Amino acid sequence: MRRYCLALLPLVLSGCVSTVASVVTAPVKVVSKGVDWTTTSQSEADRNYGKKMRKAEEREGRERKKAEKACRKDPAACGTYDGYRAGQPRDD
Length: 92
Hints:
Elements: H1 2-38, H2 42-73
């Protein structure tokens, strides 16, 4: 009888070992997921930069059209638009 109990012991404990292993690795998985959420990958940074630049180009196009329209209406006002310069602060 004792021999049978010893033979069945690994089968019974295998479930406990896997449960213990998942409980031990759970905090590591939670922390790594939190780090993933708080950090920005290179592809995300590239996508965000591209979006920012497209918006800046759209704004530049609108400003250029507005300046051209004002210049057609009043040629004396043509010198007010200097154009868009990347990296320069806006005067809003």
